[in-house]
RNA sequence: GCCCUCGUAGCUCAGCGGUAGAGCACUCCCUUGGUAAGGGAGAGGUCACGGGUUCGAUUCCCGUCGAGGGCUCCA
């Protein structure tokens, strides 16, 4: 609290002996450093604003934060000031002391210091005794543990200030949250900052502009304007999706995008998802622009009677969806209001669940492998407010588990994290920078078929309700492209690259030759351009390199006469003269195999010892 | 939606109470040049939009829209 305040009771214990609360996440040295940094920061903030109210200050993945109620908004200058004061506290190498205080006394202590949030925390804990921690003159309510001395916090940096609701409740006051990052030593901190720099360099919004892939306009916030080069990537992914799904026995349909609200009353979305749907009115009826494909795919299923012989029925649909996301949540390609999912719904019998899931898991593995994306799997089971028969849930969860095992895929179980309508498997892809992105999902749904009264006739000629499996592999195409751009840092594999080769005549003499070869390549479906501008070779090479074009084909007099090109690959360099036939064969082969001919620049860092966000440490 | 920051030429950015500047890109001319920028000239902006303060606003204030960082949300 305030710096001049005396502790309630003289400190005796050291942090050493304090046992972590049971069931808490890993509380290793790094966790303690981050948590301690948060206290050190709070002390610094209180030095500047003695009247500040403190909320919570936990360690999080990569660092820590602390929420404050302050008399004015913080500026970047304040951050520098706070950081300098933190350095002083660290240099002081103060001991972290801790002791227990009866809750009543603690409340009185905080009341005296106008710390209403701390009082609320203590009251909510509802325990007879709470724990205090102190370093230097600063005392805080805290479960600990902490490092022994402030001197152990030697590698931190304050990152940013943002708003955060007290207790994460948008009805409660908005506090100011200061984020910092903290590491065991300076070199870990440096490599983390380097990672952030690299992430900034390959930010898909920046690259999208530089590579002329897409743009955004305020006339349609949250919606992507695809440029020719970006749309080519989109089409490439959609083609991949179609090829694989056709081969796996999927059929594709195309449904409307506007529906009478009655459809969503049937599906339950009107009740649960209303505020996220865009609506239009016509002739006194309310219509919704569809936010997902499931309800209308149910209508397709109902267009005729089905036999068990029809199942599994695998129906894909990739129509445009709209979701009215909050303006503040929009983020480049990653969070948009208009997008398409690579969606499919499988109508199956109970016995078919396992086999179908196994098949989808296999497809996911194959597709991610095409991009050299690693992934991590989470199986989410029955939540507290589940609907349906427990026995059916048990069997379905077991089937999901068997499918993962059948594919030899390790997974973690998130007990109680499933949707109310069924258990699910989520896939987080891990990109070249070690970042995780939730993409693929496989969800069992026992509810939607019931709501739409779907039936099929089984072997005994009785009517049964099918089970629906919702599944997507990319998630949304838009989002996946965003992730992919950052994963490959804008350098797409040849098969997916917007322009696969730029053909460069050295002088006017070779222009006709270059155009003739370009026409030949285009006839084979290759995407090539001729850069016949009146510029020097170095200029053209530079431009093609900046656009991360996989192939640069240079023709001077020698090459034109020998029906060849001097081949240069992106980020590889000059390979020397190669005959046109050979070049064509190489390109066609890479395209046919969807070869991942990208050298990924990966950054490994200590991400794996992640500290999950943990707000228990106040 | 909420908090903070931001919005100057196609792009990246400088500037500032006295009606705007650079580099790149673009157009034209010269140059026909072997693997990351050849030279010259020119054109291009109601300084996001709407109010207000002021003799005067791109600059200060308020609002709107959009963007960025978070929070919330993401059945």
Radius of gyration: 30 Å
The unreliable regions are 1-24, 607-618
- Strand-residue fraction? 25-35%
What's the number of domains? 4
- What is the third-level CATH name, the topology of the largest domain? BirA Bifunctional Protein, domain 2
Mean pLDDT: 90
Number of helices: 18
Quaternary structure state of the chains depicted: single chain
Q: Calculate the terminal CA-CA distance, rounded to whole Å.
A: 14 Å
Helix content: 25-40%
Main sheet makeup: 9 strands, mixed
Number of strands: 31
Shape: globular
Specify the CATH class of the largest domain: Alpha Beta
**Could you say which structural class the secondary elements and strand pairing correspond to?**
alpha+beta
**CATH architecture assignment name of the largest domain:** 2-Layer Sandwich
Could you give me the name of the CATH homologous superfamily of the largest domain? Bira Bifunctional Protein, Domain 2
Task: Walk me through this protein's architecture.
A hairpin with a 2-residue loop joins β14 and β15. It is globular and about 90 Å long. The protein starts with 12 loop residues before the first strand and ends in a 25-residue tail after the last helix. Strands 12, 17, 18, 19, 20, 21, 22, 23 and 26 form a nine-stranded mixed beta sheet that branches. Strands 2, 3, 4, 8 and 9 form a five-stranded antiparallel beta sheet that branches. α6 packs across α14. The protein has four domains: 186 residues, Threonyl-trna Synthetase, Chain A, domain 2 (Threonyl-tRNA Synthetase, Chain A, domain 2), CATH 3.30.980.10; 217 residues, BirA Bifunctional Protein, domain 2 (2-Layer Sandwich), CATH 3.30.930; 35 residues, no CATH class; 93 residues, 3-Layer(aba) Sandwich (Rossmann fold). The chain has 18 helices and 31 strands. By secondary structure, the chain is α+β, with helices and mostly antiparallel strands. The structure holds one RNA strand of 75 nucleotides.
């Amino acid at each position: 609290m305030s710096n001049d305040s005396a502790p309630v009771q003289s400190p005796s214990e050291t942090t050493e002996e304090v046992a972590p609360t049971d069931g808490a996440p890993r509380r290793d040295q790094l966790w303690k450093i981050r948590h301690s940094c948060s206290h050190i920061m709070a002390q610094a903030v209180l030095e500047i604003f003695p009247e500040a109210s403190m909320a919570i200050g936990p360690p999080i993945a990569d660092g820590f934060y602390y929420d404050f109620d302050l008399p004015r908004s913080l500026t970047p200058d304040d951050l520098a000031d706070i950081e300098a004061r933190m350095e002083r506290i660290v240099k002081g190498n103060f001991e972290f002391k801790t002791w227990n205080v009866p809750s009543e006394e603690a409340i009185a202590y905080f009341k005296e210091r106008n710390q209403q949030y701390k009082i609320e925390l203590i009251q909510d804990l509802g325990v007879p005794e709470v724990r205090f921690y102190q370093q230097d003159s600063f005392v805080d309510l805290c479960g600990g543990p902490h490092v022994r001395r402030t001197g152990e916090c030697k590698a931190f940096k304050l990152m940013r200030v943002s708003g955060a609701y007290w207790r994460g409740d948008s009805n409660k006051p908005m506090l100011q949250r200061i984020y910092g990052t903290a590491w065991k030593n300076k070199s870990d901190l440096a490599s983390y900052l380097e990672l952030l720099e690299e992430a900034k360099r390959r930010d898909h919004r920046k690259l999208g502009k530089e590579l002329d892939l897409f743009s955004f306009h305020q006339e349609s916030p949250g919606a992507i304007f695809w440029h020719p080069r970006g749309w080519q990537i989109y089409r490439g992914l959609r083609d991949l999706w179609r090829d694989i799904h056709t081969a796996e026995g999927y059929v594709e349909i195309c449904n409307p995008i506007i529906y009478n609200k009655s459809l969503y009353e049937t599906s339950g979305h009107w009740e649960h998802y209303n505020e996220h749907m865009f609506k239009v009115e016509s002739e006194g009826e309310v219509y919704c622009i569809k936010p997902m494909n499931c309800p209308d795919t149910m209508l397709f299923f109902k267009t005729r009677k089905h036999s068990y012989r029809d199942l599994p029925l695998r129906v894909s649909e990739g129509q445009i969806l709209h979701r009215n996301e909050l303006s503040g949540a929009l983020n480049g390609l990653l969070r948009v209001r208009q997008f398409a999912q690579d969606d499919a719904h499988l109508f199956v019998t109970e016995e078919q669940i396992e086999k179908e899931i196994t098949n989808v898991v296999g497809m996911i593995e194959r597709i991610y492998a095409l991009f050299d994306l690693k992934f991590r799997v989470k199986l989410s089971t029955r939540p507290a407010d589940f609907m349906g028969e427990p026995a059916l849930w048990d069997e379905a969860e077991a089937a999901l588990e068997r499918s993962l095992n059948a594919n030899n895929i390790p997974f973690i179980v998130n007990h109680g994290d499933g949707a109310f309508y069924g258990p699910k498997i989520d896939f987080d892809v891990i990109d070249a920078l070690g970042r995780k992105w939730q993409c693929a999902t496989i969800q069992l749904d026992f509810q939607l078929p019931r709501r739409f009264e779907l039936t099929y006739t089984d072997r005994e000629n009785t009517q049964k309700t099918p089970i629906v499996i919702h599944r997507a592999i990319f998630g949304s195409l838009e989002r996946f492209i965003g992730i992919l751009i950052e994963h490959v840092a804008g350098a797409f594999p040849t098969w997916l690259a917007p322009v696969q080769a730029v053909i460069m005549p050295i002088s006017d003499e070779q222009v006709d030759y270059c155009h003739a070869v370009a026409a030949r390549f285009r006839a084979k479906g290759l995407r090539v351009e001729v850069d016949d501008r009146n510029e020097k070779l170095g200029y053209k090479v530079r431009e093609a390199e900046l656009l991360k074009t996989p192939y640069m084909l240079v023709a001077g007099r020698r090459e034109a006469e020998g029906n060849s090109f001097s081949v240069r690959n992106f980020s590889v360099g000059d390979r020397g003269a190669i005959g046109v036939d050979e070049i064509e064969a190489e390109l066609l082969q890479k395209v046919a195999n969807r070869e991942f001919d990208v050298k990924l620049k990966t950054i490994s860092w200590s991400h794996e010892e992640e500290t999950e966000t943990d707000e228990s440490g106040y």
